[in-house]
User: Which sequence fits this backbone?
């Protein structure tokens, strides 16, 4: 079991280095800083060590064959698409902080409206799921809500820029996120 601990430790080191590069890269001017270069090198070396150890072991710590399944690849693609569409949350924070000159407290209060959207998304997902609505329609509805949030921000909030109107795109986006995230693993459960 020492080999299993080594693989687990190696994964932690690699993930730590990647997190360091992603968090402090912008602050430290990316690869102009020696610590970013070192963390990147350690992450690449530890990833190579991980794959080498996994190939040469009989009892695998991480099953790499799972990526051969079509549903796993589709789930990863859907998750990445969801995270790309979720970047609209960053635009809300930037718009309220820079464009509307809101302080951190008001920005955090605005973020609390996400809870209402998450509740709406979860309840509607449970109701529609129990009615037999296929997951692909719920997933598409989630992406539709994410798009509606961006459209609402562009046409409604951009022209007026009122703090009171900002809660609606936040609620709509959170509803879309919940509808999509609840059903992200559905394709993988169908093959199992």
Assistant:
């Amino acid at each position: 079991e020492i080999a299993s601990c080594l693989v687990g430790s190696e994964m932690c080191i690699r993930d730590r280095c990647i997190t360091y590069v992603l968090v402090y890269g912008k602050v430290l001017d990316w690869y102009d800083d020696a610590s970013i270069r070192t963390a990147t090198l350690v992450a690449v070396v530890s990833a190579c060590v991980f794959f080498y150890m996994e190939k040469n072991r009989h009892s695998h710590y991480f099953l790499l064959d799972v990526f051969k399944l079509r549903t796993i690849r589709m789930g990863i693609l859907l998750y990445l698409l969801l995270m790309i569409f979720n970047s609209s949350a960053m635009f809300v924070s930037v718009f309220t902080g820079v464009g509307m000159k809101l302080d951190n407290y008001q920005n955090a209060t605005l973020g609390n409206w996400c809870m209402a959207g998450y509740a709406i998304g979860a309840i509607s997902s449970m109701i529609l799921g129990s009615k037999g609505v296929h997951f692909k329609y719920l997933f598409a509805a989630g992406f539709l809500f994410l798009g509606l949030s961006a459209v609402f921000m562009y046409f409604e909030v951009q022209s007026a820029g009122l703090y009171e109107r900002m809660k609606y795109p936040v609620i709509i986006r959170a509803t879309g996120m919940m509808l999509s995230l609840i059903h992200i693993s559905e394709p993988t459960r169908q093959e199992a």
